[in-house]
């Protein structure tokens, strides 16, 4: 079966956060969900659940725990028990719980920037101090074209650690810069956390959205001593385009860490809703969903290549990343001659909503994040609008 990712869907009528914040004249390429239908088995599972017509409290299906443990074994060669998996209504909620669970008020939480905004707000929401290390970026040659490529700056990371730092929140693959970190980089991160006795939270929400030869590596799979201090967060939400259903999972082998998370969540964090479990189980267990994912990846890869070609051909004043993973591109507009707030410029002059890079913290000023999880015609339209606005 060939899935039609070119089909344009009117999402304004569906309470979409992405499509309903701005007026009809604005093309939304900001919030990180995709403009594609989810795979049919997920929709069928939701219908089946609705057909029972009773919506009482839920309980994580044992089958879902087993499927997730099996997936970790086959994809990461990491053996975990089904009861090492906990469920959360969202990863942002997970980031906040973890900041609250680890250390004491006033302790430090280490993050790389630029990074997905809740990495910057969760620590301070929970009375922790933010320790920020900027990523390093260089221009690399990609078949004769310059691309922005990011690396972890390990010196900056060490320098940002204070005697009170207790937790490092890693984003892998990294939103917004699109890097899926290599085994060598991840081993170095593991060593750093061991050396400084840091708990490692690895947000891997984009783990199933890698492109080309890139393979996602879960840092906890690399060594038992890393797994022992790591909380791995994943979800079917980005991959299968179901973030509105609020079902995500935490893999935690260390019992004490699990207990600390449970305590921090108690009485505040609601259950995952029934629909989320039904969708998650279908997403992870139905072979048709895997087939859909592979075709999605081919489409997203072609969108990424379309975008980089477009920038090379029509936007000489702009540089972009060529992401290894995610459907998010990070455009460098620092030499595009835009004055004032970039997001406002894009909204008013280009009639496109991108995320303002400055919101992603240190190193984000002068950049915008563009979501290319959309039909190619939509992507082309957004790029044309930017091109005309830049002149
Ligand atoms: C790295 C990362 N973590 C978490 C989230 C959001 O997770 P959730 O919707 O499950 O709260 C996103 C969404 O873009 C993300 O990019």
List its traits:
about 20% strand; single chain; about 400 residues; 13 helices; binds pyridoxal-5'-phosphate; globular; 2 domains; Aspartate Aminotransferase, domain 1; 4-stranded antiparallel sheet; alpha/beta; Aspartate Aminotransferase, domain 2
Q: Strand fraction band?
A: 15-25%
Q: Tell me, what's the shape?
A: globular
Query: Any idea what the CATH superfamily of the largest domain is called?
Result: Type I PLP-dependent aspartate aminotransferase-like (Major domain)
The ligands bound in this entry are:
pyridoxal-5'-phosphate
Describe the sheet with the most strands.
7 strands, mixed
Number of strands: 15
Q: Tell me the distance between the termini.
A: 42 Å
Describe, in plain words, how this protein is organized in 3D.
The chain is α/β, with parallel strands linked by helices. It is 38% helix and 18% strand. It has helices at residues 17-20, 40-52, 62-76, 91-101, 118-125, 154-160, 183-195, 224-227, 255-265, 274-285, 287-314, 342-350, 376-390; strands spanning 27-28, 85-88, 108-113, 129-134, 136-142, 145-151, 165-171, 199-203, 230-234, 248-251, 319-320, 328-332, 352-353, 355-356, 367-371. The strands form four sheets. A seven-stranded mixed β-sheet has the order 2-10-9-8-7-3-4, with helices on both faces. The longest helix is centred in the last third of the chain and has 28 residues, at 287-314. The radius of gyration is 21 Å and the shape is globular. The N and C termini lie far apart (42 Å). Bound molecules: pyridoxal-5'-phosphate. Pyridoxal-5'-phosphate (PLP) binds next to helix 4.
